Amino acid sequence: MSSETGPDENVSDENLPKEQGPAHGEVARKDDPFADPGLPPHEHRIQDVDEQAAKRSERTVAFIFTLSMLATIGFIASFVAFPIDKIIYVWPLGHIGALNLALGLTLGVALFCIGAGAVHWARTLMSDEEMVDERHAITAEPEVREKVISDFKQGAKESALGRRKLIRNTMFGAVALVPLSGVVLLRDLGPLPEDKLRHTAWKKGKLLVNENTNQPLRPEDIAVGSLTFARPEGLEHHDEDFQTEIAKAALMIVRLEPGDIKDKRELDWSHEGIVAFSKICTHVGCPVSLYEQQTHHVLCPCHQSTFDLADGARVLFGPAGHPLPQLNISVNKDGYLEAQGDFDEPVGPAFWERG
């Protein structure tokens, strides 16, 4: 027996309709490429003539749809089964949230099975009879065709394109070069980014200035559990490039109990529990500003990406792709908080995809 979706070679000829020949009895002629070639014989699927095969296809489609239903139930159950802060290692993806992985897989399977079931249903069980529609002649009258060809030859002869090779070659050169004008116009889209996305206004020795008071910050200015926003020393609101620079350099400062900090590097880059992270969310660049004092979680108000400031600002929930970059800070001889360099990685959303 042949495959379910292919023609059935074992079906009796008396079960098949007569072969469909050329419409109106026309026969394709070698000297007329526009003659009606007719239709090839219709090949019946095995499901059209074998009810048992049709039943098998029906059960296959039902099984695929059932898988979709089970995947949808699994999607709903994932909300109960997985905590939002559970991180697992999956090769080659690395460390990812178990909840996000479960939701993505179950929803993907549910949608895929709906599509696969519909396609299998259409290909094996729905009607596949051809619908014939007579086509009108698209060729011009012989007299018109002869006149067009004659006019074209006369115009080509009068243009002397074949004889005037210098004109022909320079014309081809002009047509080939003129699109380069559009390439030059692309330069006006803006300055080249170079490596500006990899650097901010933070440098070694830059003081942390309170965004509200415009005063340099001391450790005693920041209480445990408080949230403070800062900018680099020397970056003022009246500067022409202030918006461009603050979009990369905006800083979020939180003071934790040193014993609550889980990440070793975060602890090494802090000062007496004071940690500094980029304020720019790594999803679409919204300002992260909602802080939960008891859990040390910070929330982006735009799409609810949640970061754990006690564990390297790693992503706990939401669409953000990677943790918030941390700024290494210390205290100078005058007792003010200062940066020890730039952020450890570029800030903002989707940088690695862009650069």
From TrEMBL:
Q: Which UniProt keywords apply?
A: 2Fe-2S, Cell membrane, Disulfide bond, Electron transport, Iron, Iron-sulfur, Membrane, Metal-binding, Oxidoreductase, Respiratory chain, Transmembrane, Transmembrane helix, Transport
Q: Where is this region: Disordered?
A: 1-43
How would you describe this protein's topology in the membrane?
Multi-pass membrane protein
Q: Which residues form the Rieske domain?
A: 248-338
InterPro entries documented for this protein: QcrA_N (IPR045603), Rieske_2Fe-2S (IPR017941), Rieske_2Fe-2S_sf (IPR036922), Rieske_Fe-S_prot (IPR014349)
Q: Where is the composition biased (Acidic residues)?
A: 1-12
| Domain of life of the source | Bacteria
**Alphabetical list of Pfam families matching this protein:** QcrA_N, Rieske
Alphabetical GO CC annotations of the entry are:
plasma membrane
List where in the cell it is found. Cell membrane
Q: Give an example GO molecular function.
A: metal ion binding
TM annotation in the entry:
61-84, 96-121, 166-186
Q: Which SUPFAM superfamilies match?
A: ISP domain (SSF50022)
PANTHER family for the chain: CYTOCHROME B-C1 COMPLEX SUBUNIT RIESKE, MITOCHONDRIAL
Family under the similarity heading: Belongs to the Rieske iron-sulfur protein family.
Q: How does it assemble?
A: The cytochrome bc1 complex is composed of a cytochrome b (QcrB), the Rieske iron-sulfur protein (QcrA) and a diheme cytochrome c (QcrC) subunit.
> What is its biological role?
Iron-sulfur subunit of the cytochrome bc1 complex, an essential component of the respiratory electron transport chain required for ATP synthesis. The bc1 complex catalyzes the oxidation of menaquinol and the reduction of cytochrome c in the respiratory chain. The bc1 complex operates through a Q-cycle mechanism that couples electron transfer to generation of the proton gradient that drives ATP synthesis.
Query: What's this protein's name?
Result: Cytochrome bc1 complex Rieske iron-sulfur subunit
The protein's organism comes out as: Streptomyces reniochalinae
